[in-house]
C-alpha cells in the first residue's frame, strides 16, 4: 500500500509538472532517503571489498575468524544476533578492539517477511541496546535475516536511522561446504565494491569451521588481484559509530 501511494504521488508530480511543488519535493526526498538506505555493494570503480560475517558471536567459530583476520591484517564487519551478543559480550568487545565494525542482525533472527512492523522495530531496538551496552556506542548498520524486508519496513529505515546492508557475493558457507567451494562461490561474483556474505555463527548442529579456513585462500588471492579490504561503513561511507 505504501509503495502504491508513493508511485501515485510521483505520477501526479509528473503529470502536473510541478503544480504540487511542496508535495512533490517531499515525496522525492522521501524516496531518495529510503533508496539510499537499502544497499548491496559499494563503488564498482574502486577495487575494494568488504567481508561480512553473520549470526555470531559464536564461541565455536568467531575466535577462529578473528584470528584469521588478524593474521592477514584486514578488517571486516560483523552483523550480530542480539541474544548471542548478550551471551558473549567478550567476543563483541574483541571485534571492536581489533578494529572491526559491528552491526545489527536482529535479536532472534526471524524472517521479517512473516513479522509485523512493530516486531521489526523491536528487533532493531533490542539489539541496538545490547550493542550499546557492550561497546558504548550505537551502530547504523543493519542486516535483515535472509536479506528480507517488507516494503513498509524499508520505508521505516530512515526513522530507525539504520542502513539495511545486504550483499553482492554469497559464499554459501552456511551449507557447511568445503573450503574450496566457499572460495569458488566468493570469487564467482567478485568485483570492485563487492560485499561478501559469510558466517561466524549458526545453529548448534552446524559446523562452520571451513569459513575461517577458507580465508587463508580468499584473502591472499584477493590481495594479489589488487583488492583492498575495508569495513562496510568505509565501503559505503556510512558514519560509524552512529552520530
Automatic annotation (TrEMBL):
Alphabetical list of SUPFAM superfamilies matching this protein: Glycoside hydrolase/deacetylase
Keywords of this entry: Hydrolase, Metal-binding, Signal
GO CC annotations, alphabetized: membrane
NodB homology domain residues: 47-230
GO BP term, example: carbohydrate metabolic process
Superkingdom to which the source organism belongs: Bacteria
Signal peptide as annotated in the record: 1-21
GO MF annotations, alphabetized: hydrolase activity, acting on carbon-nitrogen (but not peptide) bonds; metal ion binding
Record-linked InterPro entries: Glyco_hydro/deAcase_b/a-brl, NODB_dom, Polysacc_deacetylase_ArnD
The protein's name in its UniProt record: Polysaccharide deacetylase
Source organism of this protein record: Priestia megaterium (strain ATCC 12872 / QMB1551) (Bacillus megaterium)
Phylogenetic placement of the source organism: Bacteria, Bacillati, Bacillota, Bacilli, Bacillales
